[in-house]
Amino acid sequence: MKSRPTVLFLPGLLCDATLWSSQIEGLRDIAEIRVADLTQDDSIAAMARRAVAVAGEGRFVVVALSMGGYVAFELLRIVSERIAGVALLDTAATPDTPERAAERRAGIASLAAGRFAGVTSRLLPKLVHRDRADGPLGAAVKAMALRVGGEAYQRQQRAILGRPDSRPVLQEVRAPTLVAVGAQDVLTPPAEAHVIRDGIAGARYHVFSGCGHLPPLELPGETTALLRNWLVGSILPR
What we know:
Helix content: 40-55%
CATH superfamily: Alpha/Beta hydrolase fold, catalytic domain
Number of helices: 11
Number of domains: 1
Structural class: alpha/beta
CATH architecture: 3-Layer(aba) Sandwich
Strand content: 5-15%
Largest sheet: 6 strands, parallel
Order of helices and strands: EHEHEHEHHHHHEHEHH
CATH topology: Rossmann fold
Distance between the termini: 11 Å
């Protein structure tokens, strides 16, 4: 592997590259950074194809959060030989429950009846720790969602609804793996991270204390340090 691995960041639902801004800046000295745009497609397979094109040639490391994790699992299906490592933050290998799928369909349908509201004050405590919801972080999350917009939101939700069960993929993963989750994540709680951790042999596991669904924004320093230590210890040549 080359001395500076390519690291491909995959954002979550209603997220853009801003999600990873601290990590991008903090890892530039040891990695070639790429960020995939996951707002253009309405299937996880199409998102994965777009991500492969962004990664370029050769092997690459995947760092993914939430919906980005669903794309990471697809990459492990289609180009596993190119994956030099995978970090899976606040995501799930399991499919939606019927109740969660119904919520997604309701969200899509609501846009047909009105203006896209983005991340509302009511939804925000499900995304970030309640202690941060009313501050600058909450405002940044709302602004990011509005940049992504309603049309992309509908595409992303349709993609998520159509995703396959990724639990069968876990036992096939051979690349160094980091699994991490916010202790107070209510969207993809630690129990979902345990499924991934237990399914991938040798996976490293980390819990962000006092954190919700978005550690890269809620605890940027801790997230960057975690990824850096993992890259140096497991990915970079010795």
